Amino acid sequence: QPRLAEFCQDTTFDIINIGFINTFPDQDPLTGLPGSNFGNQCWADTYIVDGVPSKLYSQCPNLVEDIPACQAAGKKIFLSLGGGYQTYEIDTIDSSTKFADWLWGAFGPKTDAWESAGSPRPFGDAVVDGFDFDIEYNVCILIFTGYANMIKRLRRRFEEVPERRFYISAAPQCPIPDEQLGVAIANSVIDFVWVQFYNSNPCSARDFVAGSKNGFNFDEWVQVIKNGANPNAKLYVGLPASALAANLGYYLTPEEVQPLVKKYMNKYPETFGGIMLWEATESMRNQIDGVSYGEKMKEILYDLDPNHPTPTPSPTPTPTPTPTSTTTTTPTTSTVLTSSTTSSTSTSSTTNSTPIPTPSTTTRTPTPS
């Protein structure tokens, strides 16, 4: 998998999610630390607590270097929690609060108190721009209020640094209500909701293409947003970036994506945020007419957005596109890139037709096992 910095050279992408924190502290009571998997971006070393090795990788030099470089290029970087693992859960409300505080200390702005205590900083001095909740397994009844409480706690910690904006995003699956994140969306403020409109029937984007009368449920998700804690949240269409990035049949060609975007961008200009792709490396590998799938999505979003600026000449796309994010406060199009914990990555592109601060980009990169 390429380095994060390589993806960040591509102006196609606006948000990159780094994944994953895939084990939570409740699953490792001996160390009290979560576990991570950022693929080949980290070495095999882990943090050790009282002689007990944790599952949290401690040496991630590529990310230490690349995160600030991406941010300097206008990207936003999110840290993603969960993913396609069955190794995480929140056992109590108290543990959800402590976990939120730990995430802020480990990946938010560095403090003297945190450093003096010798607490973990896997990315060194680098600071992520937000936290992404990709919760796909419901293993505890408290998981619902636990995630809402985590988000509320993180929001309170964000207030400690008023000069900088931080974000919360969520990646629910398309069935409504989402078993893992439905309560969190209803009860806590989330900025970006990129729904996985794939690998699920009958609500997938493939159902839109097939003309299924009771299929693709973007309209229903708009109502979920409007009735939730943040009715101004942006809603994204999550798609696989190649035929290999999802189960058979869920991949859409650019020609199939275009009418979907056209319909819902025009129908919900205040809510439609853009496109999310799973995942970064697969987008890079999926070359169409000499450009990546992610760039094709960006072209669709740009061409259909009635608010986009007058086009200006752009350089020929590089053979290895990387995600980028705009830094203006009124973006018209933005793309979101995520990288998985395997050799493949997913990308997502998003457009914003209403003035909001540009979201941050994050890539999820696998960690060695």
TrEMBL record:
Membrane topology: Lipid-anchor; GPI-anchor
UniProt main location, coarse: membrane
GO molecular function list: chitin binding; endochitinase activity
Top-rank EC class of the record's enzyme: hydrolase
InterPro entries: Cts1-like, GH, Glyco_hydro18_cat, Glyco_hydro_18_chit_AS, Glycosyl_Hydrlase18_Chitinase
Keyword terms, alphabetized: Carbohydrate metabolism, Cell membrane, Cell wall, Chitin degradation, Chitin-binding, Glycoprotein, Glycosidase, GPI-anchor, Hydrolase, Lipoprotein, Membrane, Polysaccharide degradation, Secreted, Signal
Bias kind Pro residues: ranges: 308-322
Bias kind Low complexity: ranges: 323-369
Domain GH18: 1-304
Pfam family, one: Glyco_hydro_18
Gene3D superfamilies documented for this protein: Glycosidases (3.20.20.80)
Its EC number(s): 3.2.1.14
One GO BP annotation of this record: polysaccharide catabolic process
Keyword flag Chloroplast: no
Record localization: Cell membrane; Cell tip; Secreted, Cell wall
Keyword Cell membrane listed: yes
Reaction(s) catalysed by this chain's protein: Random endo-hydrolysis of N-acetyl-beta-D-glucosaminide (1->4)-beta-linkages in chitin and chitodextrins
CDD domains from the UniProt entry: GH18_hevamine_XipI_class_III
Annotated GO CC locations: cell tip; extracellular region; plasma membrane; side of membrane
PANTHER family membership: ENDOCHITINASE, ENDOCHITINASE A
Role this protein plays: GPI-anchored chitinase involved in the degradation of chitin, a component of the cell walls of fungi and exoskeletal elements of some animals (including worms and arthropods). Required to reshape the cell wall at the sites where cell wall remodeling and/or cell wall maturation actively take place such as sites of conidia formation.
UniProt record similarity statement: Belongs to the glycosyl hydrolase 18 family. Chitinase class III subfamily.
Identification of the protein by name: Endochitinase A
Species classification: Eukaryota, Fungi, Dikarya, Ascomycota, Pezizomycotina
